[in-house]
């Protein structure tokens, strides 16, 4: 009997499952590797600033090429772009594993981390855009919550696995595990349905180069037009001077300059993951009762209180409580924020807006990581967390009394409301990704 072609709804559900699997497998390797790299550099150098720089350097590409990568993510077929990102990432991480075999100088490790960071500005907006293509609108809050919850789960288990891998097997194994995770992710993305739209990647890069100026200006206009997006960009930039400054220096705070990793480090870092899981589980239900702006404001306020705990009494207990609460509030901010943005921005232009809103806030992370390292070495842990809590309090005030705090999903997509976005001037219109071929139809 001839097998019936899958219906559009069935194909979307299957693609959603494949996307979830690809995300969790790729992120599993990332979490182990993300934890192993600063430990490796700290063991090689004994320097808190150098270890923090290793953490920070992965964010530099978001600042340098974030706008360009967002334009490429809008113009390319996102499925193909995600495949290329996974394959290139697997090759780079394999190279890092080979470097580890020869006891590399720290600058080579940081250079490889920078190259890997150059891939992520393309994969993140492509993944966010792919969600709008392959996940029904009514399921996006659930999908965003699942992604955040999965990331939280990995945040809880990843540090434990990272400590085990680094202590027992070394960073070489961590690198090769991450490479395998990227390869499996590529296979899963390759199993999703082909969207009948989108030029080849090389043509998309050329088009992005030609229209980078107009498209960047278009993204800026979109953010300026929607005041909640503008305030979010400013406030998230300021917020990256708070917890990221502490997170970049957690290894030094707990392990000291010798880099001897105690079990307490895994406990503290895992607490953040547990908090993120609980926040992600609660977020969809909270979104049904409260406006996104209300949830985002509450999350920023509670995070300020959490950052004050280690300032009052530095220790493993307060650090663990702080990381747990930060994980929970991060989820209860990110889920409503991404859902609101996906419902506000035309999917054809989501990549460039995401690229802009990563590039600007992430520009603060390298600076805050280094400032955090300087503060903790020169003035101690109390000074670092006092400064972080004070800045986070200002972020809460800004969220509470700005258009971001009044953001409401119900305001968007109302009947008769005109479209906010138009095609960027001087650039070709990106076709709507509507038609989908199932596996049977492709044959």
From TrEMBL:
Keywords tagged on the record: Cell membrane, Membrane, Transmembrane, Transmembrane helix
Molecular function via GO: transmembrane transporter activity
Keyword Transmembrane helix attached: yes
SUPFAM superfamilies assigned: MFS general substrate transporter
Gene Ontology CC entries for this record: plasma membrane
Protein name: MFS transporter
Main location: membrane
Subcellular location: Cell membrane
Record InterPro entries: MFS, MFS_trans_sf
Taxonomic placement: Bacteria, Bacillati, Actinomycetota, Actinomycetes, Kitasatosporales
Chain residue ranges for the region called Disordered: 408-443
Entries under Gene3D superfamilies matching the protein: MFS general substrate transporter like domains
Membrane topology according to the record: Multi-pass membrane protein
Keyword Transmembrane: yes
């Amino acid at each position: 009997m001839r097998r019936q072609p899958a219906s559009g709804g069935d194909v979307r559900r299957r693609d959603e499952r494949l996307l979830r699997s690809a995300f969790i497998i790729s992120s599993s390797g990332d979490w182990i590797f993300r934890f192993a790299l600063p430990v490796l550099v700290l063991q090689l150098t004994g320097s808190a600033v150098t270890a923090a720089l290793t953490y920070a350097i992965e964010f530099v590409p978001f600042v340098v090429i974030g706008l360009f990568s967002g334009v490429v993510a809008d113009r390319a077929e996102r499925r193909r772009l995600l495949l290329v990102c996974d394959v290139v990432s697997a090759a780079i991480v394999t190279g890092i594993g080979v470097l580890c075999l020869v006891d590399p100088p720290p600058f080579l490790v940081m250079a490889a981390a920078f190259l890997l960071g150059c891939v992520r500005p393309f994969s993140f907006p492509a993944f966010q855009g792919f969600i709008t293509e392959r996940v029904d609108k009514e399921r996006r809050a659930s999908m965003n919550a699942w992604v955040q919850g999965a990331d939280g789960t990995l945040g809880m288990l990843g540090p434990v696995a990272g400590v085990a891998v680094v202590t027992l097997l070394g960073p070489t194994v961590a690198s090769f595990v991450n490479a395998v995770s990227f390869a499996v992710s590529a296979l899963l993305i390759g199993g999703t349905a082909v969207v009948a739209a989108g030029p080849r990647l090389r043509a998309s890069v050329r088009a992005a180069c030609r229209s980078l100026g107009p498209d960047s200006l278009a993204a800026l206009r979109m953010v300026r037009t929607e005041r909640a997006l503008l305030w979010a960009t400013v406030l998230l930039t300021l917020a990256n001077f708070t917890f990221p400054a502490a997170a970049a220096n957690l290894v030094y705070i707990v392990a000291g300059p010798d880099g001897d990793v105690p079990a307490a480090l895994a406990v503290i870092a895992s607490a953040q993951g547990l908090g993120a899981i609980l926040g992600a589980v609660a977020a969809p239900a909270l979104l049904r009762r409260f406006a996104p702006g209300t949830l985002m404001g509450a999350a920023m306020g509670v995070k300020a209180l959490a950052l004050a705990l280690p300032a009052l009494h530095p220790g493993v207990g307060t650090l663990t409580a702080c990381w747990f609460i930060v994980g929970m509030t991060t989820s209860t901010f990110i889920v409503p924020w991404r859902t609101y943005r996906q419902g506000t921005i035309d999917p054809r232009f989501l990549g460039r807006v995401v690229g802009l809103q990563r590039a600007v806030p992430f520009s603060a992370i390298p600076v805050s990581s280094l400032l955090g390292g300087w503060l903790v070495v020169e003035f101690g842990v109390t000074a670092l967390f006092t400064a972080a809590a004070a800045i986070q309090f200002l972020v809460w005030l800004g969220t509470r009394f700005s258009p971001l705090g009044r953001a409401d999903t119900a305001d968007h997509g109302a009947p008769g409301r005109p479209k906010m976005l138009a095609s960027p001037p001087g650039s070709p219109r990106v076709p709507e990704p509507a038609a989908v071929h199932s596996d049977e139809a492709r044959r």
